Amino acid sequence: MGRCCPMRKALGYIWGTVFVIVVWWICALAIGSPALPTPGASAVSLVQNIADIMPEFWVSLGRILLSMLIGALLGVPIGLWIGRSKRADAIFGPVLYVLYPVPKIVFLPVIFVLFGIGGQGKVVLIAIAIFFQMMVTMRDAAKNVPEGAVDSMRSLGASKFAIYWDVVFPATIPDLFTALRITCGTAVAILFIAESMAGSSGLGYFIMHSWSLLEYEQMFAGIIAMALLGVILYEAFDIAEKRLTRWRRA
Q: Distance of CA 183 to CAs 21, 191, 234, Å?
């Protein structure tokens, strides 16, 4: 049973990849424009330019991981605190309702002015978006923690920190990884916009630079690399969740 699930997942990835390639190939043939090269031509370009793409890949990956780490380290504890404290929720809940729906990408010019157009500004922008996502998700998850479990810990004389560490946080780990999987797509999208608008490094810059040179096959090679970046992050969080939440299956 344990081997069946990974095999099924692998087959799912294969089917999804084949489907995307077939649709992409049909669209490329139907449009007949150099701006939309075939999957084969793009794959060949990816191999030919791998030496140029990989350094940009690692730069983008480093920015994503750092920003997600900062956003999670700040957003998770604050969200848990707001979710378990009626007073904090009454004060900061309305603030979240106002700020959370605002697209964080609109702050890009302000972030670039304050932190520069280098990697620091991009990391700050993505971290802000992830911070709000993590905070809202963990606040809602903390509210759904069974009160019986919390009361049992209190009856044993547990401190507030022990209740958070031994009851609230473990109970909200599945929601934490759900939020991480959701935010990795958002983070990659924001990173592309930030790297394509300013700076001279990262996959976003590589893609837009190739576009400016009308190197469309090279451009799609960069797009494939950025897509792989998102898939790797998503799969990494999925694997981590399964390893850390084995008690759910038990």
A: 25, 12, 9
Burial label for 213, CB within 10 Å (0-12, 13-18, 19+), is: exposed
Residue 232: is it exposed, middle or buried by C-beta count within 10 angstroms (0-12/13-18/19+)?
Answer: middle
The position carrying tokens 């900061």 is: 92
Which three-class secondary structure state does DSSP give residue 50?
A: helix
What radius of gyration do the chain's Cα atoms show? 22
Written as six digits, the tokens of 174 are: 């599945």
Calculate the alpha carbon distances from 190 to 35, 105, 195 in Å.
23, 7, 9
Quote the CA–CA distance of 161 and 74 in Å, as a whole number.
17
Could you report the per-residue pLDDT of 131-182, keeping only the tens digit for each?
Answer: 999 998 888 888 888 777 676 777 777 777 777 777 788 888 888 888 888 8
User: What pTM was computed for the model?
Assistant: 0.82
- Spatial contact of 133 and 172, defined as CB atoms under 8 Å apart: no
CATH number of 36-249: 1.10.3720.10
Could you tell me the end-to-end alpha-carbon distance of the chain, in angstroms, rounded to an integer? 13
Residue-range domain boundaries for the chain:
1-32, 36-249
The reported pLDDT for the residue numbered 8 is: 73
Question: pLDDT (tens digit, 9 = 90+) per residue, 103-130?
Answer: 888 888 888 888 877 778 889 999 999 9
Q: 51 — alpha (psi -120 to 50), left (phi > 0) or beta?
A: alpha
